[in-house]
Amino acid sequence: MDMGGSIPRWNNTHRPRFLEYYGAAVRKVFPDPDMNAVGHFRSLWFEIINENAVGPGSAKCALRRYNRPFVRHGQGFHNLGAGFYSIRDPGLTPLGEEQCEILRNTSFPDQSNISLTTASPLCRIFHTALLTFNPALTSNSKCPPQILALPDAQETSDELCDIGSDPSLLRGIVAENNWPVDLSPTQDGWNVKTLENRYNPHSSAMKARAHDARILLRQEIRELIRNGDIDAQVIRVTHGGYLHYFTDDWEDSY
């Protein structure tokens, strides 16, 4: 998919290193201004610069752009209206499940190059990730067969619908639904959103964890490349509100 934009010219400030993201773009598969449909996803543009490069004239200077999709979950029961915000960690509606199938067939028909599937540790996100990327999880030799849960990718607000389950309960939900999820990063306190907690809903806290999540992403890509996966494809399935902080793109944020 062409997300537009251009790779900046080399200048003296560049170093042979992995650069922080320098742009974001939006592609909306479903024109839903309320963002109640899966398929609104943003991609970060990354550059990988060969660590052995010595300058722009070197034959070893390898500059490559990496567009990585970030998928918003399908319609959850809380998306049916403000009266449903009090549902704790709601699942997908039947329409949400259908949206995932449509997204899989239209935007991700070939999943053979996906290297890693990651998701916010909320039920609607796990379900979206499984329904959309099941081919990568079950028939792709280079993609681990489990979805990696990432607490830093959880939604921003402290509404009940955006607060996940305690780890012990979450393990039971995952087992009951037979979701292939690695919950090891999800420790006690990951779903606590008090003001003194890392996951509090204040904008400064959200910016901090979005920054840390971008660093983690580039570390994941670097590790995959070092292990021989030159076209490293990392999938993030997460939330619409969170993605504004992650990409610093605020279109349709109000």
Keywords summarizing the entry:
single chain, 254 residues, alpha/beta, seven-stranded mixed sheet, 29% helix, globular, disordered N terminus
Q: Can you walk through the features of this model?
A:
The chain has 254 residues and is of the alpha/beta class. It has 5 helices and 7 strands, in the order βββαβαβαβαβα. Strand 5, helix 3 and strand 6 form a beta-alpha-beta unit. Helix 1 packs parallel to helix 2 and helix 4 packs across helix 5. It is globular. The N terminus is likely disordered.
Topology overview:
Layout: E1 24-28, E2 40-49, E3 63-72, H1 94-107, E4 114-119, H2 123-139, E5 147-149, H3 167-177, E6 181-182, H4 203-226, E7 233-238, H5 240-247
Parallel strand pairs: 3-7, 4-5, 4-7, 5-6
Antiparallel strand pairs: 1-2, 2-3
Helix pairs in contact: 1-2, 4-5
Q: For the largest beta sheet, what order do the strands appear in spatially? A: 1-2-3-7-4-5-6
Shape: globular
How big is the Rg?
18 Å
The count of β-strands is 7
**How many helices?**
5
Describe the main β-sheet briefly: 7 strands, mixed
The ordered string of helix (H) and strand (E) elements is EEEHEHEHEHEH
Protein structure class: alpha/beta
Low-confidence stretches: 1-37, 39-63
The end-to-end distance, rounded to whole angstroms, is 26 Å
Kindly summarize this structure in a few lines.
The chain has 254 residues and is α/β, with parallel strands linked by helices.
